[in-house]
Amino acid sequence: MPVFHPLRVQSIERLTDDAAALTLAVPPELRETYGYAAGQHIALRRVNEYGEEIRRTYSLCAPARSRPDTLRVGIRLVEGGEFSTYALKELAEGGTVEALPPTGRFVLAPRPGRFAAVVGGSGITPVLSIAATVLESEREARFCLIRSDRTADSTMFLEEVADLKDRYPDRFHLVTALSREEQHSGLPSGRLDRDRLTALLPALLSPPGVRDMDGWYLCGPLGLVDGAAKALRTLGVPRTRVHQEIFHADEANEADAAGDTVGANGVVAGSAPRSTGGTAAAVAGSATVNATLGGRGGRWSAREGETLLETVLRNRTDAPYACKGGVCGTCRARLVDGQVTMDRNFALEEEEIEAGYVLACQSHPTTLEVALDFDG
To answer: Taking every annotated instance into account, which residue ranges of this chain make up the domain FAD-binding FR-type (predicted)?
Structure first.
């Protein structure tokens, strides 16, 4: 299983009043371990003054490298965010941060084609890596970036995006929108919601262009990503060409956050758990969880109300996780046997759920026996 390694902080570069780019040095012996694809992220952790372990995931923003000597991530200060506050206000150059090797499936393998992205706020971070990598690697690739920010002063990676425009003037198209500030050129102020994007995208790309893009990449707050996804469906874009990564899901209501009932053979949409002679809560308190992790198996009793991840962590501290909020996908595992319900899911694609994958941090057993494979 991937393990945390301490990496030295090489630099901290202020991007805005509330955001910075953190660059970590990778020693030669770990460079192959930390190779990454465009769009992936790393999990960082620290132990606070109370001895509690704090983990957060941050997307890599530099072009993909198979043997990187540095890792660069963008971090925006979140109100009440324990790790972002530490990173932006306490962490200093020369310090160390523990990091897991890169992971994530919000990626674009460089290839010729036409690609587009709709991003909001810090959602620019992985898309910056994706756009820079594909334009650098493929002369026949074109990329359209539609980004939304509150104000010009709050916009992350302004210089890096401007550099892409300068380097690839015929292959990189940039459209900016500010929700709280008028700009001299570009779109009128206002949020990029479903209705606005449905009208805007055909004007930018023409209807055949919208439908025929080889890939759409949506990243940012839930509202923006959800609205963009619905606009693309309205405009006839095949779902398989739309890739999403949620950065903030706080605005989700219960209906939005509800996950699926998943069985070992895939999603069981709208169905009740298999009959076990009791309620789902009663099963959760008496279920047995079998888990394979790092080639080793274990069998443990679940406590009342526990998620699968919590059950495994009580017995295996090396179980993978980061956000515990159903957003990052670090705890993704294959359900081999039994059935579970997921409270929230903002990380798995429909195809993954249909194939039997679940988020361990959000899954509760609804059968007496559940088998989970973190290696699968």
So the answer is: 2-109
277 pLDDT higher than 60: no
All domains of the chain in start order, with CATH:
5-99 (2.40.30.10), 113-251 (3.40.50.80), 257-373 (3.10.20.30)
Residue 199 neighbours by CB under 8 Å, 6+ apart:
none
The one-letter code for the residue type at 58 is Y
Residue 366 CA to residue 347 CA, distance in Å, equals: 21
Q: Helices (DSSP H) in 20-177: which residue ranges?
A: 82-89, 124-137, 158-167
- DSSP H or E segment with residue 301: strand 296-301
Token output for 130: 């994706």
pLDDT, mean of residues 273-283: 38
> Is 229 in a helix, a strand, or coil?
helix
pLDDT per residue as tens digits for the range 148-194: 999 999 999 999 999 999 999 999 999 999 987 776 666 777 789 99
Rounded to whole angstroms, how far apart are CA atoms 369 and 338? 6
